[in-house]
Amino acid sequence: MNERDSESIHSFLQASGFDMVDNETSADVIILNTCSVRELAELKALGKLGYLARRNIVLCVLGCMAKNLAEEIKKRVPGVDIILGPGDYSKIGDYIEDIISGRRTFIIDVDSPGAENNLDMDSMHNVTQRQSSAFVSIMSGCNMRCSYCIVPKTRGTERYRAMEDIILEINKLADNGIKEVTLLGQIVNRYGFRQIEQKDGKSAFVQLLEKIHEVPGIKRIRFTSPHPVGFHRDLIDCYKNLPKLCSQVHLPAQSGSNRILKAMRRAYNRDDFIKIVQALRDTVPSISVSTDLIVGFPGENDDDFSETCSLFDEARFDMAFIFKYSDRRGTVAASMPDQVPRDVKEYRNAVLLKKLATHSKAYNDKMLNTLQMVLVEGKARRGENIFQGRANNHRKVLFPGDDLDVGEFVDVRITSSAVTTLYGEKI
Ligand code: 5AD
Ligand code: SF4
């Protein structure tokens, strides 16, 4: 999501006459687009800010940390010129001009009143030549109250973009050569909740997927992240009815223990979760299933953790983001008793990472000798004339290719596999 936000910030600045430089040392203006989901991200950003504040530049902090820690940033890093919270980034060009011209010496804007109405400004993209894939925001904010999470505080309540605007944007992207879109939102399957009526038993999100499916030029559709609550039959059926929908789902589980899920205020249990995964696998047997898991949530004991381990095996996650629980001031979990010691979190994290490597390799091994349609992203970091792209299930595939392949679909036969990457040959 931040990557997408940075892209629209880039577009706004370009429209105001600014140019992007290719390295930080020659920049006159530096924008840090920050995240507050975990403390480590904030600490890193604060460290970087302290370092940058010594230079004679216009220094801006945007994103969730701007909202979450505005006063602290102001106090601890006097060199910061602009603090702008998530929401209405269209003002950034004017704000920088204000600082450069000396009209203002410091700007803080973390409760942007325009933010609620400004979702359509989101449609600014910077499609470069031969780029084939784009992120599209369909909503922002979150109405859930997961007890560990800072997002509802930093991003506010849910706002949904109008379906026509999203379709218009995707049509424009397709006209500019985009072949794959990834729909973004804190909970994409809540799109239009209580605002757009169900039609033939189909949620607003499913209606949106169907409309996007009709856009000529768009060959692949992905989305992230859905919530297990609201992942109903109509959405599962899309994997059968909409061939452009990729065989991949990222479904955050957070924990395998019913007790912890309850304390996290996730309104589903382990069984509900398994049933969704099973229904998805029944529909698309080779589907890639990834997740988010938190280890060391307050009160998580060995039994709870074993439940998460067994969920990992039962759901056969082939990809996962595993997070050590991080205390976020102002959240309900921050004041819960039985905070888990750091070394226990480290241990549980390591156990799950090991499990992940095993599952991921097993999943990749099943792809050996198959033919995959790969959407080519560009040159791989290593190796002469080695290119990289994504299979339909989002697995990374490396193969010897040439420059003309970039941005195109190429048929690749998979010849070997590692934990995260597959290797193959063009046919
Ligand atoms: N500590 C650790 N991980 C967190 N996440 C959200 N809040 C926290 C926290 N306080 C994780 C969740 C979510 C992902 C984006 O970040 O797993 O799905
Ligand atoms: Fe945070 Fe829960 Fe909303 Fe996801 S659903 S953004 S974890 S509050």
What does this structure look like?
There is one protein chain. By secondary structure, this protein is of the alpha/beta class. Among the domains are: 2-109, Methylthiotransferase, N-terminal domain (Rossmann fold, 3-Layer(aba) Sandwich); 127-246, Transcription Regulator spoIIAA (2-Layer Sandwich); 371-426, Beta Barrel (OB fold (Dihydrolipoamide Acetyltransferase, E2P)). It has 13 helices and 17 strands. The model has no long low-confidence stretch (mean pLDDT 94). The chain binds 5'-deoxyadenosine and iron/sulfur cluster.
Question: Which characteristics define this entry?
Answer:
single chain, 427 residues, alpha/beta, Rossmann fold, Transcription Regulator spoIIAA, OB fold (Dihydrolipoamide Acetyltransferase, E2P), 5-stranded mixed beta barrel, 4-stranded parallel sheet, 13 helices, 34% helix, binds 5'-deoxyadenosine, binds iron/sulfur cluster
